[in-house]
Fold each of these.
Amino acid sequence: MNLLLALVKHYGTLENQDKSKVPPFGWTNAKAHFAVELNDDGSIDDILALGGHDKKNRGVVFEVPVRRARTSTPVPYLFCDTAQYILGNVSSTSKPGTYLSMKNAMLAFRGDLGESPALNAAYKFFETWDPEKALQNKFVASAMAFKDAETSTFILFYEGSPIFDDETFRTAYEEIVEKYGEFPIQADRNGNVSITAAPAHMRSMITGEDGLKAKLFRPVSVRGKMTYILSNNKANTNYFGRMQGDAIPVTMQDGHKIVEAAKALIGSKNCYFLPVTSQSLYTKCVIVWSDEVTKPEEDEMLRIWFGNESEAEKTDNIMRLAKARRGRVDILQECDKSKVVNVWQLSVPEKGCSASSFTQTTVGEVLANCIKHYEDMEIDRSEACKNADGTRRDFARPDSIILALSAMNKDNSIVPINNQMWMQLNNCVYNGGKYPSQLLSMIYERICKDALKAPAGTMYIIPPTLAGAIKAILIRNYKEDITVSLNPNNTSPAYVTGRIFALLVSGQHAIVPDNQSQYDKRFLSRVVTNPVKVMPTIQMNFMQLKNRAQKSNRMGTYNAINNQIMDLIDMLDGNYPGRLTQVQRGEFFIGYNQQMHYNRDAAIAKKREKEENTIAMSAVNTVATVDETTVA
């Protein structure tokens, strides 16, 4: 109910801002692809492709009479419909009843619509046109040569304008809408039409206002997939507007506002689609809007929520500028924090019913929860996780986490992930609730699988998105005290064990870089389950690398790493932990991840120091040479 009321309110907001943004009651926006220009005698003067010849860009949006949802019988859309309704037999799939339903409906409403040059041209067209010989007309044949012309929309024009722009038609149609809410046409498969009874008046449960009782609501297109925001149709369709199996009492007026507001939102920047491949079973999106904030405030809120700005403005700016209260976040900091923000998550499957969830929050909560999520997710990251300008990439957004969890097919396409997981993750990020309970196990499974696939001769480092997600879950769900970087004071047995394993992996790689039997690939999934059974074996194997270190002149590296390992084992009192719980596995991975990054940073610092010393020694030698030359 809250969603429906919020959509009604948003329709009013759009209408107040600009009446052209949403169509009035009785009208809707639809795309037409071909204009059928009529002469006064009803003959076709030409058929023009609208919006160019490119399929992707073809078509122009018009404000047309409202289009009732079609079921098993044809429902003609006057003056604007597909080729078989307007022109007749244009392909092998054309059905005679469709054209006849359009013709009979047009002539049946002739007395109600009245007379004008434009309307008379349309009447004469349907009186004289032979649908069986449609393709013999050169203009029709030319139009049908376009790809997908059979399913494209054709619109009747007169003197360069749509016929329903005719003043006589619009005046007559207003009276029809006032009584019926739409064209009251009912047709059978043979094309016979009848006029339906005028709907009863009722009070809407949504707004409490009087209106016409709705029978069947229109669907909304979400990237080509049709979904119903509410429906009074079949009992087995569990649409969002249904309440305990019974239709919600909604008037046609409110239903119009709900559908048109939803269409406006889905087609705007307020709607963010989760990046998925064509193999996905769902079209998933989150829609965020507020009717109480100003446009600049909403724009900044959407940038924080969706990160839909340039790469250089993502995570760093959200964190840094939000804390400093300057820059673009300043607008929200100065905004009334109590203003309401609507969050609608929608998933549309290929077949069946859409899944929908709706919550309302405030600007203050959005900002605070968003910043808290990014703070909890922040963790040591490599230089590879930066943009060319040095700023951090946005690794913490919910869709980034979902994509990091997704498996890849052999053709590098993404295997679809659980739809509800994405919804739950979005909810908890922006409402401050606990992260989904099953998220930890999914992350662990992905890490272990990715480690097995790591290229030979490279050390596996947990992706920052997954490591950050573990850290955030441990902090929010389990009240753990997890730092961004390595914490030498953390004495958790699982955390310390993770550090030891990272040192063993780094040590093996440093001493035997081309080793094909890597510790991380062979043992990670076993170590994180039951360290006490595996770690002694790995440690013994590492000790056997001492001879290799002596032969390759790497004893300094071996001794340094071995001493660190011994110090950490002392923290465990010489005993590795047994079977780890879910939380302890998270601690293990955090310890492993932070120690790996610490090792990397130490190696980089050592290399940089060596280069600086080399440069300094070179400068000293150069000066000494110059002095000797001067003396000579």
Amino acid sequence: MFTPFHKKMTVLALCALFLSLSGCAAVEKDENKELSLVVDMGMFSEIQGGLLQAELGSFRLLIHEYSPPSDSSNDVLFDSECLPFQPNALFEINNLKAGSGRSINLEAFRDAECTEEELGARAYRGGVTIDTSDTPLRYVLIPYGTEEFTALPIPSEATVNQASETSCETDAECQEAVHPRSFCWQASAEGKQCAMTTLFPLNNYVPRAMHTSVTLDDGSIVTVGGIGQTSSGVLLGTDTTFEIFSPSDNLFEVPSIKGYSGQVRMLLHETIAMGGQKILILGGIQSMVLQSRDDGSLSFITPTQACWDPNNCYDNILNTATAVSFDSGNYKSNSLPGPVFGTRAMPISGNGSRILVVGGAGHAESSSKCSSSDNCDDGEWCNNGDCVVVSPQYKRSIFICAASQGSLTVSCEDSELELSEGRFGHELFCLEKDDDGKCTKVVIAGGYGVKGENIAELYDVESGELSVLESDSPDKSVGGWKWIETAEGEIFSFGGSADFGATATETPQRVVISDGTISFEELKSASNDATLRTFHEVVAMADGSIMLVGGLDSNNAATDSVLIVGQSGSVEKESSLNSPRFAASATLLTQGPLSNAVVIQGGFSLSPEPKALEWTDNGAELYVPIP
């Protein structure tokens, strides 16, 4: 399934020289045993984007003792130094120090001297094992072209077809006959067949969209929930709730959380990092319905009760605040004051760990009591003795959650404050922080259908006061926009629309907040129609620029457009994803050998007419800047 290789090179001298200098420990089993591994550069023939393999003139290959390589000590086990680039090569490297948790780092350059400024591609592989087996382990390197998006590996068409043509009874049969990642499933009433959908752990384990992704203290990216199944317009949450991308080895994993049920489906939930290896998941909805509007935009129907199986109706909205520790593999589900989805949350200042939870959508209860839904009016259903309207209500509530130190217990209470309007599709922005980096003033901005005079409110954490900011744009009504702080401390906003799923209409803005007022001015990039989008992502890059990624454009089509916006507000560079996608996630890597790269995960594309959701073709993608 990978490109065949026609060259082989054995590198001995430099490795032997280095090991003699480092005093490599002998292997106790057999001191004369030559320990080796094979580095496979075959995928360099498949570098994507604008970089051509022919442009690469040199490379440098290093093998490190640790994954990721140590910053504080020299852990280099092998250094090829600068060599002429050899496409489709296999490198057998001998006389290595045995052990696990090694890593391979390769840089390829456009010139013949390995000049840093001419870096054209990088590759990194962690979790490498060097052992005493007779056949050296072979590790395939995935090249990431610099300043472009690289799609992570997916099964070849031939392998997918082979799987679909292979009958089976067990996963093991598929793994032996097709591929180690193949599995057996009930393809039809007639019987089972093999399937091949992913090259996990080199790529995502399952497709998902409208998920959340947050970064843990060790730099790992945790992806939570999201849509995992689509059928006849019904969108169900995935039953693989958690997936982690580790920057130490550039691999994905599905963590095991003791007792956690994958049947807890969730989308339109909120996730925040709680420090260390902990996260907090707030609310969410288990399923919704997609419909097309007459103008070509989308309409997402979010019922409070789900009855996809007429014999099994259930409350569609979650009222949980679930704390998860990936260190211990434990979790605890705590309660919110009420069921809610689409809420936004942010850590705030105060004693201990406190979280501000704002707005969202939830139940609208009528005044009627009930013992069954027959006692309720049309458009209502019976929920624990109260009639509840099927259509959700945008909420004006503000909750304060407090996490207990050293445990997963979280207590959430209604603050009794009320927003000026119900907000869904709104943004939270930390305006001021204390000395510990915790937020002391929070801006609550926008939301679908919010009136212009109430476009934003300011919550003062220390005083507990909530006030509407006086706006210079009384006609502005926008939700789904993304706010981001620039390296110079300014606030930029990107994208958005007037209604959930509606056509993108909001141009990029500079947001100015001062003395109880808020004002907006268009950025220089506002004249570029490609900036109009919804269900997009924004990332603050390490060099101070802002990356605007994917989404639905002003023609209601999934876009592969990526714009790099400078601190002046102008578009400085344009790039492209390998697959158009919206409702994806884009997360900056903060640690590891590929630190400051951006990981793109999940999302949908759209078929043209009639519009229907399709999973993106390439799973995850990685953007690697020049260091």
Amino acid sequence: MKTTQTQLRCDVLVAGGGPAGVSCALAAARCGSKTILCQDRPVLGGNASSEVRMHIVGANGMSEGLPLERESREGGIVEEIRLNQCVRNPQRSPSMMDLELYDLCRQEPNLELMLNTTVTQAKANGRQIESITAKRPSTNDRFEISAQIFVDCTGDGTLGYLAGAAFSMGRESQAEYSESLAPISGDKKTLGSTLLFQARRYPVPMPFSAPPWARSFSAESLKFRPFGRPGGDLNLEYGFWWLEWGGELDTIKDNEIIRDELLAALMGVWDFIKNHSEVDAENWALEWCGFLPGKRESRRFIGLHMLTESDLMQNRAFQDAIATGGWPIDTHPPGGIDAVDEPPCDQRPVPHLYDIPLSSCLSKDFDNLMFAGRNISATHIAFASTRVMATCSAVGQGVGTAAAYTIQRKTVLPDLPSDSESVFRIRQQLLRDDVMLLGCQNKDPRDLARKASVEASSELSNGPANAVIDGWTRALRSPDSNPALMPIGAPPDRFPDGTHRWISDPAQGFPAWISLSWQNQVAIGTIELTFDTGLHRLLTLSMADGYTERMHWGEPQPETIRDYAIEANIDGYWETILEVQSNYQRRRHHRLMQPIETSSVRIQVYNTNGIDHARLLEIRAYPPGSDGPFLA
């Protein structure tokens, strides 16, 4: 069959469909840019897909926060995905995560999804990438795709590498960036890759015989690698993140060798657990094992700013911050499972949540190349924290939003980090889209709610009605820097105290209401609401039973308002503008079918998904025709 060549054009080309790429593409498309997402696999999700099955973790670490005090779970697109999975995928099927991401992309009118399509060439002219070539062997198709902005979310940095962008690979020395956690001498070693597995317990014994090529393990060789411990992510149903190897090889070029060795190690570890360890695994049997290595590290681009250990540990404030991190600096021995005398990881908590700047996502070599995910411009030590998937998703959303802004305003990418007006507009849009940003308060002049007076049927002292227009949408302040307090919060000088939400009096019951009023009539075309979804709580799709038991999984979060109505005072009478039932999402954007002229709007809350009172973090209201992305 003859190969068909097709020329395509878009505003933003995103290569790579993991959490960073999906979030980047969705953000760019939702902000109005014609976007193409090329993914070289048949499913989306990267390491979170059914092909790898790693659970998504991020700034909130692996511990619960404090209700109404420390809410470090990411918002934005990754929160939308997590909440959808929690309600729509109570059975915790990995394939339903694939379908969720596919559905989000397919429903977005500005986004064209191209699965099984691999970027193979990049054509550059000076400091501009003009086009990329992508091939889809399954259909004998070859595409030449032109774009204004190219975003590399491939993890391995494939697009940027093909264009000739500078990158690093391996560990920097302590002296290079003054990093105390770096090795004394730099090298080409990286974190290794992992193959996960899933096992199930049956009512009868399930024998297992290892294949002849399986490796052999003993209690001595696994003395630092715990397993068979119910209650966490170390039980038998999920596999082991520490089943890692390949960090002393080239994790790109040697990926097939790494896959084969990991399979041999997986079979050997299971053989030891089943047939030789003290774990009662007689009735356990393998149900699935991965064949696609979950890769942690490969190329990292060199951008306008190199994020370093001190940026994280000293909580450097960046004017151009587009995302927030907080996972510990989590390094692993490059030898992986062969490093039998070393613990499988060394986790150094960061004292506070930290900024990730746009300048670490912009190429120093090309004026229209961006990157998001584990390949951003960061040292090995800083990358060891930013690499986790919820953080990658947040960076992807920030990059996609910045890309759309650049195209709409006809600005130049390298100038953005120092352009305070542009950065302000991008950050305000990210905040409106519920992205967690330190020190960023709603100052959108188009938002009519900021000029309204607020009343409510009742309120508590720690949840005043006026909080819905205070410009903050979570409780995040951490009064100290005790790393034992996980998840961590914001530095004391970068986030104000308070719950930052209206809390109705439980004694008053339902319905409860809150209203915005203006001295004169205003025209409203859009109303946006932000609800409480328990951001202090762990929440992510996981195959680990013990980890999932620590979540509120399989139904909406109990704090979230379920049934509500939006009413407007028209000629002295309250009229219902719209009603919503069975809500479970955090952010709801209501574009009214007909704009209204009113001096007051009211949110009537009829019920929640569990708790006995109403909580609402923010109300925004926009005039007709002025609710589009970015400030004028």
Amino acid sequence: MKKEIYGCACCSPEFGKIFNGNKNVSELTAMNPSEIALNQDQTPWMGVLDRRTFLKGSLVAAGTAVLVTGLPGFARANKEVTTVFYGGTVLTVDSKFSQAEAIAIRGNKILAVGTDAQVRAAAGENAKIIDLKGKTVLPGFIDPHSHVVAGSVVDSVMDYVGMARFGTVDEVLKHLERLAKEKAPGEWIAVRNFDPSVQDGPDALTFKELDAVSTQHPIFVFNASGHLAYANSKAFEVAGIPADVKNPPGAEFVRDGDGKLTGIMKNNVAFLQILSKYPALTEVNPTEALIGLLDSWSKHGLTTLSELALGGLSNSPADLTVMLDAARSGRLAARIRAYPFYTIGEKEWDDAGVKPGSGNALARVAGYKLVADGSNQGFTGLQREPYLNSDDRGLAYMSAEELRTRAIERAKKGWHLAIHGNGDAGIDNILDACEAMRDAGVDMKKVRARIEHCSILHDDQIARMKDLGVSASFLIGHVHYWGVAMRDEVFGEKKAQLLDRCASLEKAGVGFTLHSDFMVTDPIPLHMIEMAVTRKTWKEPEYVLAPKETISVESAIRALTYEAAWQLFSEHEIGSLETGKLADLVILEKDPRNVDPDTIKDIKVLETWVDGKQVYQA
């Protein structure tokens, strides 16, 4: 693994700059606080330009009526359909992880759960009856930490070539060659999540490798870090970047020993000069991208996603309008829970009228996001001790004092807090902030503070989390995809054992969830469950990182259902299959508890239901 030092792209205000050339994002950025505040109260679906027309007093009432009645949850009571599922295993994921024989839904809510006879009696004679034929029903899966608003825009215009798809650099290059054959000369090839730190092969892609793929297509390859990119000579030509280009402040066009450009670019100030010429990125509609992304994830059984850096697309509170527009369209295939991002500024969010609970059951603001440090694999997570073979201890994104001050201010205004912390010293700062909140009279039960990623965790910190009522959300892909790198390149064997301590938290009675941190990894819940249950690594398939931290299938399921709902302040409506809750569920071909743990990811998702409607069928 080549040691490239970088922060967390999703937690950087710089990330949103890659969208500066997008005309729709420019419209969002131009919105003033009063427009954003008023938009929260509107019901029709409108793009940014249409919204501004509305704000000037123009609205077609007839069109509004059609759109509103088409939204999930708006079905009239006398037309609500009752559906009974029987003949399989219903895992409710309630407090006892109860197993039921059948479940009935009416309209968008769960009507009854229990024995076959009980559920049929509650459903009545006119219910639609579905035989599960031995299949398994679970609550819909919930990813409590992802980045769907900005991430959907990138995903819509860049093909994924990360380690989950290709294990070597050579495989990536062969894929690029296939794309070049499929596209007409002049068409762009843009891909994301290339990670030579774990994909076997050269440490970077240069003109040599990419020009061998094609000199007729501009090629852009986005590194998984978000801070590096690679392009071929055609892309440099299209972008008008000369051979004697000067390095922008804080960025670099990397050169070889002879002073010639290599095609490698460091920091977005450099590679934005190429991305700004990519037509698809400048034209994509963020609302449509978000709708399309969530629809594509229904096949994984996902019914609720999250946005942990709201504001990262437009660098303003206007990101909220993208999320709400998608919800109002009547085409959103999953719920969203969002966290306004601290870099935008508390005053800006307050001026735009954004509050905890803004939105509805489909798309809602859940809490506020703060960041303590960077990325461990990027050597910017803040550590108590230096990184392996280094004197460096990482980077504090916020000073301990600033973190305490801003956390107290938000908590006193009723905000739930999600605070990013990867390194153990970063986590110390977060726990100090939580203690300061409690000392300032804040009710920590209402704050429900959670540590995002919570990667390196010591026993004394677990005890503090228990005392303060703080939970954790683990990027479990750190174990699977980067576990070997954490052991050999980042921390060493001993400290790597402290990564994502699921079992230790469970034993201590501290709540935790699992997440993807999309676009860092893709949100595939069954694979995340397998990762937590086996802790086997991608690089060395038989190596188990910290075997004492493996957990049961039931615990892993809970971490992606009820516990995730609890962290998102939504356990009253989703996360378990209980009477009165919203009818979000997934039907699996097999019970994850009854298969070889190494094959949990291979279980087929047969159906996904959101708000009482089937949004996916295999």
